[in-house]
Amino acid sequence: MVHVLLRRNWIGRLRLALTLFGLPYTVCTPGVKYVTDNNVTQSQLNATHVKARCSQYPGSDVRRFPVPDDKVNWSQSWAQYNPVRYTSLAVLKKPVWADPDISSFSPKFNTVDGAVDRTSFEGSYKEENGKPLNPHGRTGLSGRGLLGRWGPNHAADPIVTRWKVDERGTKIHHSVSKLPILQFVAIKRKDCGEWAIPGGMVDPGEQVSLTLQREFSEEALNSLAVQPSERAQIHERITKLFKSPGFQAFKGYVDDPRNTDNAWMETVAVNFHDDSGNSVSELPLQAGDDAGQVQWVDVDSSFPLYASHSSFLELVAKERKAHW
């Protein structure tokens, strides 16, 4: 508790100093709680748009144009706004998962454009000069950054959980909350070193249910690299678990550090729970290409996670009546 209070005091002093000097600020802190209700105030909306305004864009030396909280909303007039324009070289090389530059094709936004779903879970989004505008406001950076699609980039995040048990198979309860402890499969991302839910992008025309199963198999079980006999066993158990009724923890905009003014992440996060502990729990975890490490991790509010993933797990813990 002491370290939390010290951190809050430090953040408060920093904000006060910046305010006295008339400078904008956006402090990125771990463990930020994100609002998922649609009926939110503007201040709550800005609170869900924090990591998308962190000063340095991931995987680059590019620094965003600073956006203060009161200038996030596009409805706020701001003639001085001059976002940095940046799209990574990896995207500009035109891989199959990326759109061409906006000047060379005419995408149809707010609809299904061929095989690419350009609709947003946030509802209809605005366009300006032929480019889509981030529904959560300014980020200090235009272009696509590391994201392939103009507008929403759809992902799926499978949250696979089990109960933490002792050697006799009895559920372990937390000493403070007295609630049973959940564990989930977490990967350590290679790109930023943060722990995360093993998710990935929805392919054009792909059902989200298939994305959830595919991404978990590839990232947490490294199904692409195992022997055919092992792959069959993995497929059988994964299919059984992912055919069970899952709990949709979240569906919407993700406060992701890769977001820009014109491209942003949205996801569907679904919890698949191995209640008996004899399904996925018995499979050996093995990190795939995008993951540096993979392991079962206790679900706990003190464990920092990538983007908005902590908020997804909080909803899962509440649904399962587990410790958070």
TrEMBL record:
Residues 1-28 form the signal peptide. Its EC number is 3.6.1.13. CDD domains: NUDIX_ADPRase_Nudt9. It catalyses: ADP-D-ribose + H2O = D-ribose 5-phosphate + AMP + 2 H(+). It comes from the Eukaryota. Residues 163-319 form the Nudix hydrolase domain. InterPro entries: NUDIX_hydrolase-like_dom_sf, NUDIX_hydrolase_dom, NUDT9. Monomer. Interacts with GLOD4. Belongs to the Nudix hydrolase family. NudF subfamily. This is ADP-ribose pyrophosphatase, mitochondrial. It comes from Mola mola. The lineage of its organism: Eukaryota, Metazoa, Chordata, Craniata, Vertebrata.
